[in-house]
Amino acid sequence: MQQLEINNLRVAIGESEIIRDLSLTVRTGEVHAIMGPNGSGKSTLAKAIAGQPDYRVTGGGVLMDGENLLELGPDERARRGLFLAFQYPSEIPGVTIADFLRAAAQSRSPEGEELEATDYYAKLYEKMDLLDIDRSFTSRSVNEGFSGGEKKRSEILQMAMLEPRFAILDETDSGLDIDALKIVAHGVNSLRSPNLGVLVITHYQRLLNYIIPDFVHVMVQGRIVRSGDKELALELEEKGYDWIRDHAEEPVLV
Amino acid sequence: MATQTETSAVDIDRSIGDFHYDVHYGHDAGVGLSDRVVNYISDVKQDPDWVRQFRLNALKTFLSKPMPTHWASKDLDAIVFDNIRYYLAQGTPTKRNWEDVPEDIKRTFERLGIPEQERKFLAGVEAQFDSEAVYSNIKKAVGEQGVIFVGSTEGLKNHPEIFRKWFGKVIPTGDNKFSALNSAVFSGGSFIYVPPGVKVKHPLQAYFRINAENFGQFERTLIIVDEGAEVTYMEGCTAPKFNTATLHSAVVELVALRGAKIQYITVQNWSANVFNLVTKRGLAHEEAEIKWIDCNIGSRLTMKYPGVVLKGRKSRGEVLSIALAGNGQHQDTGAKMIHGADETTSNIISKSISIGTGRATYRGLVHVPKHLKHCKNNTECDALLINATSRTDTYPAITVRGTGNSVQHEASVSQVSAEQIFYMQQRGLSEGQAMSLSVNGFVNDLVRQFPMEYSVELKRLIELEMEGSVG
C-alpha cells in the first residue's frame, strides 16, 4: 500500500498563513473528502501539494511513498503520480485535448523514447468509452469555450489517461450544476481502484451523495478540526459549519 | 590566450544552423562598397552591359537614399557598409549533381539535410553558398514540361527574353534603400518560369546559406508563372553565429499571369547576428493568386513586408506570417496589399510571439483606391507575449476608399499566463515543454495551412527556441 502523507503542513501566501499545522494521510484505495466553509484554505492545500509557486510552504512536509514532494517541481510531482483536477482549469488555445494529453503522456516516457501513436489513441478511446465521452470531444482545444460541465469532463478524462496514484479534486465553491456534479462523481467512481487514492475537496455535502467517501474531514481556518466517516458529512449538512466552529476548541483527529 | 587554439573543423551550438566549415574562396570582392566592387562582380559574372549599367545606377540610388531609421529601428545604424564583403564565391560553376559539389560545401548542405529533402518531396532544389548557387537541379519530368529553374545569373544570360521583361519591374531599384543595394550587388537567387497551364505538383526549393563572416548575401529571385500555371516555392536559410554583423538583403519579385497561382514559403532561421532586410512583392494579373507564407524565427533584425499588387480583376493576394522574436531580436514584419482592380481580395493573417526582451512589430499597408468596386480585405494580427519584458507593436495602415469595398481588421494581444504554465506542468510537462506547446497552439491554425514538411520543421524550430529561452 502506498500513501500520501501530509505532516504538520504550514502554507503562506505572501505574509498571511493559510494552512496551519495540517496533517492528513491518504492511502491508495481510499477516498477522503475535505469539507469546509469558504476561506478555510481547502484550495490552498490542493495547490500547495501540487507545487503552485505562489504558495509558500513554511513548515511541515508532504511525502508520497516516503519521497519529499516539496523538493520537486510541479511537473516532477505530476510525473511521480500526483494529479490535481483544477477548480478553474486554464484554457490552452489551439492545443487539442488529444495533443495535450499526448504531450503529457510523452513526458512520462523515458528520455528519447517516442510514444507509439496507435497505442496512445487506443488507450484514449478506451478511457473515453469508460467515461461516456464522445469521440469528437478530444479534437477541441483544451478548455477553450467549454461549459462548466465540459471542463469537468476534460479534467476527469485527463485523470483517467494519466493514471495517477493520488488525485486531488478541487471542487470547492465551483457552483457545479447537477450534471457537472454527476460527471465528476461518475468519473471518480469509474476510476476508483486499490491503486488510486483520492482527496475530494468540496464545500457542499451534495457531491458526497454521489461519491461515497471512506473518510470525511472538516477544515476550518487552515486546519482539520474534525474527522469521521461519511456520516460526518450528513451531520455537517444538517447542523452547518457553525456547529463545527463551536466545537472546534479541541481538534479531533483520527 | 596563452595556449595555441587549434581551429576545430566545426563549432556546434544547439541551434540547427550554427556550425561553420572553413572554405576556400576563389573570388572575393574585398571589403566595402564602391564602383570598383560593383564592376568586380560584373566582371566575375560576365554580366551583359545592361546589367552592369543597372548595377552602377542602383549603387548611386543606394548611396543617395537615407537609412529608414526614423520609422523602423535605430539598430540599422549598427550596419557598417564599409566592413562588409559583398561577393564571395569559389568560382566553380553551379553543379547539377550533388556528387560534383565540392566536398567542403557539400557537407554543409548534407548536415542541413537538403539532399535528403530533395529526394523525399521536392521537384527541384537550388543551394546557394554565400554569393553563388553551388547546386541547382530540377527533376527530369518537371524540366520536360518546360519549367525553368536556374540561378539568376543563368536566367539573365540564357533566358533574357523572359528575364529582362520582368526584372526590376515589380520592385524598382529605388523602392527602398535595400532594394537599391540588392540591385547593385545582387548575386544568386532563383529564376523560375512556369509555362502556361503547367501545374508543378511538388515544391521547388532554394536553400540559402551564409558561411562567411562580415558578409552580405544579396540573392535576387524572379518567378514568372504563365497563364493558368501553378507553382510552390520554398526557401530556407541559416548561418553560423558570428560576433560581427552579417547582412542579408534579398529582392524577390513574383509575376502571376492571368489565372496563375504562386505560393511562396519562407522559413527564415538566420543566426542572431544577421540583419535581414528583404523586399518581396508579387504582381497578380487577372484572376491570379499569390500567397506568401512567411516564417521568421531567426536574425537580429528582420524588416520584411511581403506584398501583392492586385493588378488584374478578381486577383487575390494573401500573406500568412509567423514571427518569433527571442531575446535581443526584433522582427519587424508585415504585409502590403495594393488593390488595383475591381473585385480583388486580400487576406493578411499575422501571428507574432515575443520572448524575453524580444520585440515583434507588425506593419501593414492595405490600399484600396476610391474608383474600385467590390474589393475586400481581411486583416488579423495576433500577438503573444511570453515575458513581462517582451514587446509587441502593431501599425496597420488601411486606406479603403469608395463605397463598394469592404474591410475587416482584428487585432489581439495575449499572454502566456503563469496559471496556464502551472496547469500544464501539473500534467507532467516541463516549463519549456509547456511554453512550446502554448506557442505551437497559438500558431496552430495558421501552421495547418502550410505544407506538411514545413509545419513539422516549424514546430521543431519553435520547440528548440522555447526550450532554449526557458533553460
List the helices and strands and how they pair.
The complex is a heterodimer of chains A (254) and B (471).
Chain A (H helix, E strand, L loop, with lengths): L2 E11 L2 E12 L3 E5 L6 H9 L5 E9 L2 E2 L5 H7 L1 E4 L6 E5 H10 L10 H14 L10 E2 L5 H15 L3 E5 L7 H14 L5 E6 L12 E6 L2 E6 L1 H10 L1 H6 L8
Parallel strand pairs in A: 3-10, 3-11, 6-9, 9-10
Antiparallel strand pairs in A: 1-2, 1-4, 4-5, 7-8, 11-12
Helix pairs in contact in A: 3-5, 5-6
Chain B lengths: L26 E2 L6 H11 L3 H16 L23 E2 L13 H9 L2 H8 L2 E6 L2 E7 L1 H5 L3 E4 H7 L1 H7 L10 H9 L4 E5 L9 E6 L6 E2 L2 E6 L4 E9 L7 E3 L2 E6 L4 E8 L5 E11 L4 E8 L4 E4 L2 E4 L5 E10 L4 E10 L5 E10 L4 E10 L7 E10 L5 E10 L5 E10 L2 H8 L5 H17 L4 H19 L1
Parallel strand pairs in B: 3-7, 6-9, 7-10, 8-11, 9-12, 10-13, 11-14, 12-14, 13-15, 14-16, 14-17, 15-18, 16-19, 17-19, 18-20, 19-21, 20-22, 21-23, 22-24
Antiparallel strand pairs in B: 1-2, 3-4, 5-6
Give an overview of the whole structure.
The complex is a heterodimer of chains A (254) and B (471). Chain A is 33% helix and 29% strand. Chain A is of the alpha/beta class and 254 residues long. Chain A has a domain at 3-90 and 164-246: P-loop containing nucleotide triphosphate hydrolases (Rossmann fold, 3-Layer(aba) Sandwich). A 6-stranded mixed beta sheet of chain A has the order 6-9-10-3-11-12, sandwiched between helices. In chain A, strand 4 and strand 5 (67-68) form a beta hairpin. Chain A is globular and about 55 Å long. By secondary structure, chain B is of the alpha/beta class. Chain B has 2 domains: 27-427, no CATH class; 428-471, no CATH class. Helix content of chain B is 25%, strand content 35%. Chain B has 11 helices and 24 strands. In chain B, strands 5, 6, 8, 9, 11, 12, 14, 16, 17, 19, 21 and 23 form a 12-stranded mixed beta sheet that branches. In chain B, helix 1 (35-45) packs antiparallel against helix 2 and helix 9 crosses helix 10. The radius of gyration of chain B is 22 Å and the shape is globular. Classes of the chains: A alpha/beta (254), B alpha/beta (471). Chains A and B meet through helix 2, strand 7 and helix 3 of A and helix 9 and helix 10 of B.
